[in-house]
């Protein structure tokens, strides 16, 4: 029995020694400053017709800075064809909706163990500009088919915090996983509605009532302004917004 206990203790000491040696060897082999630059492509965003690139620069043993740029060229929104199949109304074709966006996101990263590898915490700022074109067909009070186009422009300023993890797939390749992040900020924007034919007084009154309902619906909307004429209606304002960031996979190249 004593021999079994002795052998067990020796085995445990050997395993602990080997694990400690492996950790020391890994630390010795990985030098964050050896290849401090990482350029990454967000693979997940490609599915949503976004081109997203990030550059990360290691500044020390546990810290780095990064800046990401995302661009979505003007085109149809994802999943709109499926929505057309589910919609019962013939006044809206979701696949005709067009959108584009641009954003830039600088961030600071703290790695508890080693910069550029493993779990990290990342406070960040984000600027985003986007535009929308939404054509809608409807029948006015006189039974005449109208074509209306809504054009929107929005600008957002956000601040947030994200957690993620970065893996080395080789000496020059990384996989950066955006796990989850939360952000809050202000969005400013306006929507301009233009019709092909003059709207009736009742149609104008209905739109005015809808705009007033939007203004009164929530305290989140501030400084709402609107104007309505026979062929055009405009709605503008700003509001606070909570958003999420994450669930992204980025393939990186180190140099």
How would you concisely characterize the structure shown here?
The chain has 255 residues and is of the alpha+beta class. It has helices at 2-29, 43-46, 80-86, 201-217, and strands spanning 37-42, 51-58, 63-76, 98-110, 118-139, 145-168, 173-195, 221-228, 232-254. The protein has 4 helices and 9 strands.
Question: Your description of this structure?
Answer:
The structure is a single chain. The chain is of the alpha+beta class. The protein has two domains: about 1-30; about 30-255, Porin. The chain has helices at about 1-30, 45, 80-85, 200-215; strands at about 35-40, 50-60, 65-75, 100-110, 120-140, 145-170, 175-195, 220-230, 230-255. The chain has an eight-stranded antiparallel beta barrel with strand order 1-2-3-4-5-6-7-9. The model is unreliable at about 5-25 (pLDDT under 50).
What's the β-strand tally? 9
Strand order of the largest sheet: 1-2-3-4-5-6-7-9
Looking at the overall shape, the CATH architecture of the largest domain is Beta Barrel
Give me the CATH fold name of the largest domain: Porin
> Given the helix and strand composition, which structural class is it?
alpha+beta
User: What is the first-to-last residue Cα distance?
Assistant: 56 Å
Tally of contiguous helical segments? 4
Indicate the proportion of strand residues.
over 45%
Query: Strand-and-helix sequence, N→C?
Result: HEHEEHEEEEHEE
Shape: elongated
Number of domains: 2
Query: Quick one: CATH class of the largest domain?
Result: Mainly Beta
Question: What is the residue-averaged pLDDT?
Answer: 82
Proportion of helical residues: 10-25%
């Amino acid at each position: 029995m004593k021999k079994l206990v002795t052998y067990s203790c020796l085995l445990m000491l050997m395993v602990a020694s080997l694990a400690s040696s492996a950790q020391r060897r890994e630390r010795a082999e990985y030098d964050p400053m050896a290849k401090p630059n990482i350029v990454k492509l967000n693979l997940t965003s490609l599915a949503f017709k976004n081109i997203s690139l990030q550059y990360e620069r290691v500044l020390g043993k546990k810290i780095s800075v990064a800046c990401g740029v995302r661009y979505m060229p003007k085109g149809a929104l994802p999943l709109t064809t499926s929505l057309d199949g589910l919609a019962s109304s013939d006044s809206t074709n979701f696949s005709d909706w067009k959108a584009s966006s641009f954003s830039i996101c600088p961030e600071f990263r703290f790695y508890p163990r080693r910069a550029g590898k493993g779990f990290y915490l990342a406070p960040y700022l984000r600027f985003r500009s986007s535009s929308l074109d939404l054509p809608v067909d409807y029948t006015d009070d006189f039974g005449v088919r109208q074509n209306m186009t809504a054009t929107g422009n929005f600008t957002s300023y956000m601040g947030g915090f994200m957690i993620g993890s970065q893996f080395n797939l080789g000496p020059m390749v990384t996989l950066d996983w955006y796990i989850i992040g939360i952000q809050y900020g202000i969005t400013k924007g306006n929507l301009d509605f233009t019709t092909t034919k003059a709207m009736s007084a009742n149609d104008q009154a209905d739109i005015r009532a809808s705009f007033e309902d939007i203004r009164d619906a929530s305290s989140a909307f501030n400084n709402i302004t609107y104007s309505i004429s026979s062929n055009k209606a405009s709605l503008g304002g700003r509001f606070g917004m909570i958003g999420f960031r994450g669930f992204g996979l980025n393939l990186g190249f180190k140099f």
